[in-house]
Design brief:
Blueprint: E1 6-7, H1 9-20, E2 36-41, E3 47-53, H2 60-72, E4 77-83, E5 99-105, H3 113-129, E6 135-139, H4 147-155
Parallel strand pairs: 1-3, 5-6
Antiparallel strand pairs: 2-3, 2-4, 4-5
Length: 156
Amino acid sequence: MASGVLANSECKKAFEKLKMRSETSQDGDGEEIGRFVIMKLNGNNSEIIVEYKSKPDETFDDFRALMKEAAEAGEGRYAFYDVLKPDQDEKAHVGEKGDLAMIVWCSDDKCAIKQRMLYSSSKDALKKACTGFKKEFQVNDLADLTLDELQSKFKK
């Protein structure tokens, strides 16, 4: 089911930057990117835009807090997260690449049905613009939005 929503060109740029990052990589603007990028629908729900690009020292806890804020506002989000292996500490392995996951986040408790349907039906536009991630996850409950949960899903 397509919604007619398109992914802004900045989404692809931010995703490619996340995909190709390394400890010393910077693009022409000198901006380093950390382990995740968060995207959302714009104000009139016509386009997916980049909301947040993480700093190199930010961890899953920072990511989870931002996703919780979105849920509290009754909004969904898309995210790409670079998931390290369970035995790798994010702070000790800054710059190392893991497996890229696409996360579609809409809280069952906080997001209206219309919002959840729109995020679900629009994800294909983002998937088409951002190729090369390993797995896609639909997450609807904060209890399921944990690093352990993501890491375990990569084992399957």
